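Consider the following assembly input.
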Amino acid sequence: MTRRKRLLNNDLFLGYMFLLPTFVCLGCLIIFPVFQTIKQSFFNINFVSGTNSFIGLANYISIFKDDSFVNALKINIVWTVGSVLCQMLLGLLTALLINKESKINKLIRSILLTPYVIPIISLVLLFQWMLNDTYGILTRFLANVGLLKDGASLLASTATALPTVIAVNVLRSFPFCMINYLGGIQSIPQSQYESAMIDGANNWQKFIYITWPSLRSITYSLLILRVIWEFNAFDLVYLMTGGGPAQSTQHLPILIYTEAIGKFNFGRASAMSIIMGVILVVFILIFSGLNKKGGDR
Amino acid sequence: MKGIKKLLRVIGIALLLSIVIIPFLWMLISSFTPAESLFVKNPSLIPKNLWLGWYKNVFSSSNVPQYFLNSIIVSSTVMVITVVVSSLGAYSLTRFKYKGRNFLSHLILCTYIFPPILLMLPLNTILNGLNLIDTYLGIILAHLTITIPLGIWMMRSFFEAIPRELEEAGMIDGLSKVGVFRKIAVPMSGIAIFSIGLFSFIQSWNEYLYSSIFLISVNRKTLPIGIREFIAHYDIRWGEIMATSVLISIPVIVIFISIQKYFIAGLTSGALKE
């Protein structure tokens, strides 16, 4: 065998060669930047005043003393919990409603998936238009039904802004949960339901004893996936409210964004995003620990 | 009893469908309604005729055509690079055996959890240092941080689905391992590769945060950034905005309908396999 031919059949050589482009891309554009962020979080960096000095943990200490950070963290948690619970529940319900394989259900599925594929900016502008205080059809509708005072707007009040944004987010993301639950439901062997029928089980019992147990692992991975995603989500809230009114929707990503892009405090913004990452990792570790314990029972 | 259940099911489905359909229908209707019947207190939900004024404005007196071109250039390049890089990477992680493979595949999965908001600052520094702010190449590199980890993740499950026997038969016929990849694995998963490409096209087409920071001039801005030019403080041009929203969504919906089966397979591969 020639040397060249041997190399073309060597797993070690080929494995690394095939992975090389990936590592050039991800190494330079993700892994290196992450280390860069960690480093920056210990510095006082401000591009406007031109400062760049090592200050140890001072960024972290000042952040934890900062009320607006604590507030943003609270809003972030409400946003994440609200969005994830509602979208998974709605996704599961929808999947149960349309799980039968038929032409019409396939059509319904693709229609329900549209909010998940269209650009967030279109969805946001559409809802801002529908919630416009004078011409918005949704505002008119709610006013006519009597749920909303004349001249009021859901996005302009501190009490309703966050729930409204969460609702729009649920509309966008529930199809993802629906599709995953559908996959899970369809992989349950039909024979299990047949034998349950013979035993005289009703629909609720079938759900509790057959469907739900088979969906547990999907629920687990969906939960982790969606929590990571929503905890970090920036676009929808920022575009919809910009953090307002009166900071009532200013969650962590928006706070970091304003700290960095608005005030140019790169060091502080880096420290905040590191804290965010740590919170997520701690959550994942605790949650997977709990899940293992639950699984052993 | 059975009748009631069926009725409840139909009502539930109808409710869901209307919640999803009515907003999009309203977007479409608004974009074809002239100002005098759009900006009224109780606008009619049924359009009287197709009025194309907003679209004419968008095409003749705004930068949207240029943004459309920019978006197409950026998204198609991201698509091609993602397909090449992630199919090579995913094949390496599924079919070659070497030391450290497990570690590497975990590392790649980990990159998936770093949010754009964390990467935004260092990427800004890097692109600034390379003079790539406000260039196509700069924004393409930024988009790759989103598309490649997901591309590899999805690609892996498609490669794993190819029967090993086929590849072994190819080896017996005298193909090298690279030959097996080129002549068996890639053609076998052609449609899957194609759909991952379109998936990354959609992601890049929709991306907002990076584009809003790294793109500055009219000649480089992509559509999601450009559409915001219709929003000035006291003058929000809703008609043009709705027309442009329809225009942005059309390519995505066309792609989605054409690759739906693989799109769904891709979406579920993430959560089902772990």
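Chain B has 14 helices and no strands. Ask yourself how this observation constrains the way the partners meet.
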